[in-house]
Amino acid sequence: MNREKLLEKIRDNLDAVLKRDAELGDVLWKELIEFHPADIADFLSDLDREQAIPLFLTFPKELKTDVFAEFSIPEQSEILRLLPENEKVTALESLGSDELADLFEYMPDEDLKKNLKLLHRQEREKVISLLKFDPESAGGIMEIDVLSLLQDFTVEKSVMILRKLQPKKEIYREIYLTDGKNKLVGHIHLQDLLLHAAQSRLSSFMHKNELVAQADEDREEVASKMVHYGFMTVPVVGKDNYFLGVIPSDTLVDVIVEEATEDAQKMAALTPMKHTYFETPFFKILYQRGNILVVLLLAQSVSTSILNAYETTLPPYLIIFVTMLMSTGGNTSHQTSTLVLQGMASGEIHKGNTLRFIKREMVTALALAFILGVAAFARAWFTNYRFLPSFAVAITLSVIVMAAVTLGSLIPIGLKKLNFDPAFSAGPFLATLMDIVGVAIFCIVVKMIIF
């Protein structure tokens, strides 16, 4: 039986699974706990909380901690509120300090105070120190439960420490080294401990840190650098190069996914949602979508005003091409801005080659203007068989395309230079701007050529 059918069977026989007093219920329960914790968390998320919590409590302790760690932050917060006090401690112990900081930041102050008291003093101090950092900074996403070694340690002593602390501390391929004042001085690779003599000091073969993140540095910038240089981990330091923690590759993936999701939402003229669609309250989604759409609606009325101003001078046989002209301008600007945003996100377009990119886009704009202008002339000619109106449509479209490529290129780059998120420039915002510009170009060109 495949996974989906088995989960469906468990859902249909949930009462028997919860009681485990029938042969079928016991068999299905045993089948369920063999699933990956992420799959179990997804299954429980789809159930009502009144069903999910009792089933969750039947799991072995180790599985409970693994499953709880797989829930989203809003789900963890809600589940904690419903768990018995002793189970809350078990659930919180499943999370690292950085994950606890993310969870507590989401909680209301009242829940935060209650749950902080459930932590051991040392863990509580770690979480409080992490909560001081901006969630969008490197300090806000770093892991602090990582192993670092003193540069004066020998290989033999380092291996002994690794064996002793491995269950409690995260150990990565790069182990970062500090001096006696906990200042970052370099790193070694895990395999270096196998290749050097037992009495060799780590400082004798340590490597220089090529990338170090400041605690207040923007997390997106750090992620971009990690991808560019191909690093799996990056150390995070505070004032005076004080070693604070590490940003690992799994956190890097989370940041990239979150930033890509935010950019996609911004490009759709949607205020970025911190949580998933179903975890966001209905009226919050309504507000986030509605307020921007109202602004765009009002902005779009400028196009209508321009058309009204030229209404008496625009021939009816040319009005039918307005939709085609506006759509082409919007599509061209969106295509261009998407190329720019993708290039900036990947690092291909940067300060050093911005001028080169703009020059190339201007050549592209001329070529596209010619190609689409010819196509527009043919389309208009076969509609009315008049040269002058067809020529006006062709010239209008050519100018609109050049304007679309220019604005689609320059606006994201300009916003980036002004430290605004360039993703807001794409999608509906740019399309609305191009509608206004396109209508103005259409009216002016037609008036110049026809009249």
Provide the fold topology.
Elements (H helix, E strand, L loop, with lengths): L2 H10 L1 H6 L3 H10 L4 H9 L3 H9 L3 H10 L2 H10 L2 H9 L3 H10 L2 H8 L4 H11 L6 H4 L6 E3 L4 H11 L8 E5 L5 E6 L2 H4 L17 E2 L4 H11 L4 E4 L5 E5 L1 H19 L14 H28 L6 H4 L2 H25 L7 H31 L2 H31 L10 H23 L1
Parallel strand pairs: 1-2, 4-5
Antiparallel strand pairs: 2-3, 5-6
Helix pairs in contact: 1-3, 4-6, 6-8, 7-9, 9-11, 15-16, 17-22, 19-21, 19-22, 20-21, 21-22
Any overview of this molecule?
- It is a single chain.
- With 451 residues, the chain is mainly alpha-helical.
- The protein folds into 3 domains: 33-132, MgtE N-terminal fold; 148-263, CBS-domain; 282-450, Tetracycline Repressor, domain 2, CATH 1.10.357.
- Helices cover 65% and strands 6% of the residues.
- The protein has 22 helices and 6 strands.
- The chain has helices at residues 3-12, 14-19, 23-32, 37-45, 49-57, 61-70, 73-82, 85-93, 97-106, 109-116, 121-131, 138-141, 155-165, 192-195, 219-229, 249-267, 282-309, 316-319, 322-346, 354-384, 387-417, 428-450, and strands at residues 148-150, 174-178, 184-189, 213-214, 234-237, 243-247.
- The strands form 2 sheets. The protein has a 3-stranded mixed β-sheet, with no helix packed on it. Strands 4-5-6 form a 3-stranded mixed β-sheet.
- Helix 1 (3-12) crosses helix 3, helix 4 (37-45) packs across helix 6 (61-70) and helix 19 (322-346) packs parallel to helix 21.
- The chain is globular.
- The relative contact order is 0.06.
- The mean pLDDT is 86.
